[in-house]
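wait is this the right file?? whatever heres the structure
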């Protein structure tokens, strides 16, 4: 199957006809359809298929038990109304790169794996990279079992309903010990390649980032009859905190976003009793991120006090700075540098990835494919087919350089 036909096959899965965006949330029907697609691609190529204890899917050419495997892949789940490329581009490109290697008659010297990591976006249970975190031992089984979606369904119940065994989840050091290198291809989520005029780049680092939940609790009351002076309205302190987040991020050279909110009782004629806002913040260095979060929390407490509102702040997840393996990065640059038409700039990114999680356990690297607008986590996310094919060829070169004679 060509890149084009694989892409076309996956394109309708989980797409909302209303928004044109994707709703491929972990363990839902759309996610299971994506998983079925992955398995079918693996089996159609005669690869050995397996789903691991954490629900990540693997397709193997050669026996991984030999060790020092080269693995590529990404994820198939999406954010709410996400784009088509974030995740799937890496998985589809992996199968296409394998086809390219076979077409070249390349002989494998190391086992080669393709992976689809489960629940990378954390759209349903609030924590990103659940599959890779569990595998790498960066999420405890107890914490994973406590993850709950907006409808009150826990992760174990969701896995069970999808036919997976939630009691099996946990760290998988033996699996990671068999992998000598993981390379994730991903659509760029910014415009660096567009500005530099390059189709493909190599990742250098991932900014430290995290998610914080701010619970502002006030008092529900009638929107028509309650005097302004008598209100304890948590929406006011929340709104002021959103502006403070923007200010703090701007001052520090960081980013901070309240992109999700839950309001109780959520009635148009009721003063809210609770406003719960989720903050996502990222910065080039840890100390900058600490300053930004400290500043936002301080401002939020002052606004809460001003409006007679209680505030609780919970850090729901955190990923420290990632520096991708220098030796592997240099190896990729050397391999790709041999192609005179392909310049390969080295880029840092504010987006999180499974490759970042695994970088604490095994050598990892990333390739980025140009995104002409830089838009991501939106239906407008894009990459041209020519650039996608350039990405496939670059990935095939990398896999050939690393895993073949
Ligand atoms: O949120 C992120 O950075 C990622 O795309 N999971
Ligand atoms: Mn994403
Ligand atoms: Mn992604």
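ok assuming it is, sequence goes like this
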């Amino acid at each position: 199957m060509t890149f084009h036909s694989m892409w076309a096959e996956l394109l309708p899965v989980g797409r909302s006809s209303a928004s044109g965006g994707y709703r491929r949330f972990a363990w839902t029907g759309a996610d299971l359809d994506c998983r079925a697609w992955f398995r079918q691609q693996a089996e159609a190529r005669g690869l050995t298929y397996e789903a691991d204890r954490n629900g990540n899917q693997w397709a193997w050419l050669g026996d991984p038990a030999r060790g020092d495997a080269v693995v590529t892949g990404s994820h198939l789940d999406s954010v709410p109304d996400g784009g088509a490329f974030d995740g799937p581009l890496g998985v589809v490109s992996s199968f296409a790169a394998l086809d390219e290697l076979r077409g070249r008659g390349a002989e494998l010297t190391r086992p080669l794996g393709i992976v689809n990591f489960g629940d990378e976006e954390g759209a349903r249970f609030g924590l990103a990279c659940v599959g890779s975190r569990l595998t790498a031992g960066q999420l405890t089984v107890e914490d994973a079992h406590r993850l709950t979606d907006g409808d009150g369904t826990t992760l174990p119940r969701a896995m069970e309903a999808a036919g997976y065994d939630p009691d099996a989840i946990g760290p998988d050091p033996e699996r990671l010990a068999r992998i000598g290198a993981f390379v994730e291809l991903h659509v760029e989520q910014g415009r660096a390649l567009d500005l530099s005029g390059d189709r493909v780049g190599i990742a250098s680092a991932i900014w430290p980032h995290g998610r914080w939940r701010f619970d502002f609790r006030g008092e529900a009351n009638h929107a028509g009859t309650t005097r302004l002076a008598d209100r304890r309205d948590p929406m006011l302190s929340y709104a002021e905190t959103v502006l403070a987040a923007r200010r703090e991020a701007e001052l520090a050279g960081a980013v901070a976003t309240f992109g999700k909110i839950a309001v109780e009782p959520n009635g148009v004629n009721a003063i809210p009793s609770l406003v719960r806002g989720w903050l996502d913040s990222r910065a080039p260095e840890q100390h900058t991120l600490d300053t930004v979060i400290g500043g936002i929390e301080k401002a939020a407490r002052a606004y809460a006090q001003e409006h007679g509102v209680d505030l609780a702040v919970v850090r729901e997840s955190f990923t420290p700075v990632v520096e991708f393996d220098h030796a592997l990065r240099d190896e990729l640059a050397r391999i790709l540098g041999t192609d005179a038409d392909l310049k390969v700039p080295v880029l840092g990114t504010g987006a999180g990835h499974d490759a970042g999680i695994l970088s604490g356990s095994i050598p990892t690297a990333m390739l980025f494919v140009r995104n002409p607008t830089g838009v991501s986590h939106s239906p407008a996310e894009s990459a041209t087919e020519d650039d996608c094919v350039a990405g496939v060829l670059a990935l095939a070169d990398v896999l050939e350089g690393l895993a073949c004679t």
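The first strand starts at residue 48 and ends at 51. so i think its the right one actually
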